[in-house]
Amino acid sequence: MNIDVSTPKVPRATADAAKIPVTVLTGFLGSGKTTLVNHVLTAEHGERIAVIENEFGDIPIDNALVIGGDEKIIEMSNGCCLCCTARTDLIDILNTLVERKDKIDRVLIETSGMADPNPVAQTFFVDDDVAEHFRLDAIVTLVDAKHIEQHLDELQVDGVGNQASDQIAFADRIVINKVDLVSASDVERIENRLRGINQSAGTLTSEHGQVDLTQILGISAFNRSGANPGENDWLHDDVHEHEPTLSSVSVEMAGQISLDALRDWLDAHVAAHGDDLYRLKGIVRVAGAELPHVVQGIHQLWDVIPVDLPEPAVSTLVFIGRNLDRESLTAELAACVVEQVLVG
C-alpha cells in the first residue's frame, strides 16, 4: 500500500524538521524497558520529552517528582511528562500532545513486553493528523543479554515465531541490556545472532538501562535521513548465518531506478508478500530526480520520499522478514532500473 504517491515539492527532510520526533521503545518481558524509561524521566538531559507509557501502574516514580498525579499528563521535575495510555487510544494521546507542541522536544512511546511494535509504527503512516505533527524517528528494541537466546529458541505453538525475534526484526537500534550478567564472549555471540535477524540495526550495550540518550533519541534512523552514531554499516549484508524464522537480505543495484516502476513493483510485492515482510528500508538513486529517495515500509505499508542526502554510489534495499528470496528480489529490483547494471 503506497501512502505517498506524489513527490513532495519540498524535500521530506525539510518538511519533517518541524514535526515532533517519536521514538518507539520495545523489548521482550524483562528486557529493562521500565528501567530505561525511569532513566529518561529522572535524568538531567535538558530535553522536554513526553513519555507515553502502556503500563503506567508498573512504573515506580518518586512521588516528589510528580505534579498532579491524577491527571492524564503528569509533569516531571526535569522537563519530561508522563502520559498514561491505559485510558485512551494512542492517537488520542498524541493529538492531546499537539496542544502542548511548543513545550515538547520529542516523544518516547514504550510498548508492553508482549506487544507487536507494528501497529504503533503504522500509526505514523496511516493517520493523517498524526503524520502532520509527528515523525517516527526510530524503533528501539531492548534485549535481555541473560535470557534473549532462550527466548529466540522458543517457538509459539502456532509456529509463527515469537515476539522477541519480531521485535528485533522491527528495530532501527538494538540495546543489549544487562551485559553485566554475561561474559564478553556471550555479548559478541548475542550481537552476531541479532544481526542474523536484523543486519541493519545499530547495536549498543548497557547495564541497568543506563543508555546514552543521544544514541537512541533524535537519531533519524527510521528513514535514514541522518547520520547515526554507532550505527552498523547497514548497506552491506555480511551475515550469512540467519535465524531459521527471520532473516535480512540486502540488495544493491547500480544505475538509476524508475520511480514509477519502483512504486508499481512495491505495490505488487507487498500485496503478495506483505505478511512476511516485517521491514523494508533503503536509499535509491532515482532517474530524473535531483535528490536520492529513501524507501521505508512495514508489512503492507510503504513510502518512497526524496531526502536531502548525498547521492549514493548504488541503490540499496534491505528486506527483513520471513521466506526472503534474494535472487528473486534482486531480479525484480533490476527490472526497475533504467540502465540495468548489477553490482557484484
TrEMBL record:
> Could you tell me the keywords of this UniProt record?
Chaperone, Hydrolase, Nucleotide-binding
Q: Which catalysed reactions does the entry list for this protein?
A: GTP + H2O = GDP + phosphate + H(+)
Keyword Disulfide bond (UniProt): no
Where in this chain does the record put each CobW C-terminal domain?
Answer: 246-337
Kindly give the SMART domains that the UniProt entry links to this protein.
Answer: CobW_C
Pfam families, per database record: cobW (PF02492), CobW_C (PF07683)
Query: Which family is this protein grouped under?
Result: Belongs to the SIMIBI class G3E GTPase family. ZNG1 subfamily.
Question: Know the name of this protein?
Answer: G3E family GTPase
